[in-house]
């Protein structure tokens, strides 16, 4: 776990990403996941066929 954190810091420093960018991306991802759960449940309960392509 520590090695992964250090690798992430090294990659961000090497790529020039601002240090505050990672927490923002994480919060956006968690927000999208939170929206996906109820919408996905409603979609599955509706019985409408979902395209697989």
Can you characterise this structure?
This protein is mainly α and 53 residues long. The protein has one domain (2-41). It has 2 helices and no strands. The longest helix is centred in the middle third of the chain and has 26 residues, at 21-46. The mean pLDDT is 74.
Produce the secondary structure layout.
Elements: H1 2-15, H2 21-46
Short description:
The chain is mainly alpha-helical. Helices cover 75% and strands 0% of the residues. The protein has one domain (2-41).
The main sheet comes to:
none
Give the % helix: over 70%
Overall tally of domains: 1
User: How much beta, percentage-wise?
Assistant: under 5%
Number of DSSP E strands: 0
Cα shape: elongated
The sequence of SSEs as H and E is: HH
Give the rounded overall mean pLDDT: 74
Radius of gyration: 18 Å
Features:
single chain; 2 helices; about 55 residues; about 75% helix; mainly alpha; elongated
